[in-house]
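Data card: per-record layout.
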Amino acid sequence: MYYLDYDYLCDEPFYLNGIGYVKCPTLREIRKKTYLFFRIYLSMIASSRDELLKQQQNLFMSKGIAPDDLEDLSKFEILLLIDQDLLKDLLSFFICNTVEFRNDKYEVFDVNEDETEALYGYITKDNFDYFAGEIQKILGLKKPEEVNPKFKNKYAKSLFEKMQLHNKNQKKKTDENFTMENMIVKYCTHNKVGINILNVWDMTFYQFNIMFGEYGLGRQADFNDMMAANTFSYKQASDYKPMEYMKKS
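The structure for this 249-residue chain is written out next.
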């Protein structure tokens, strides 16, 4: 299946070929698991194989695992070495079906009324990267076009990498005010569409982040309208564009 932004706005489960049904968790589900564990899951999903090795080198040393023993291991196998139970918790958090570790892989299945199992698929070293990439898209952390981009030449690749670095640096400068708790408080305090601190928890992580971005645009549009009504004068009606906020961000 191939999903687009339209699909991600819905809270329905998403089917991944060879795996099963996965979901974008709601803010309430994240709270039950705790936001700390959610951030740990995100780190496990988003970190590269080399980043994991660097982060956990002291753990591997304490287990007596030499660097040479890790050279040929995949990201999935490294996560298994770090904590098999934690990896199962991560998978169970995003996968709607039952997950069990059997025969060096995680089986995804449902249990029927007669106690037989209906197998959906597996999570193995061969498809874990696919799973992790799809979960990032479902959470809104990656756009489909950002996954494995192809470049016509070295210049295009270099330009893309520079743009990514710039965006990362810009994000660092503004992240202080964009903690999840502060975003929830701001969104619920000034919201005009009935979302408040009591019902915001049923929004998915993707829905909240998308709507928070639109909320910021809406507040800017309100300010522009107020300024136009009270201070601006236009020689031509076309100078003022009240629907500017409808531009896709």
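Known properties of this structure: The chain has a mean pLDDT of 84. Strands lie at 14-16, 20-22, 98-102, 105-111, 117-123.

See the next section for split statistics.
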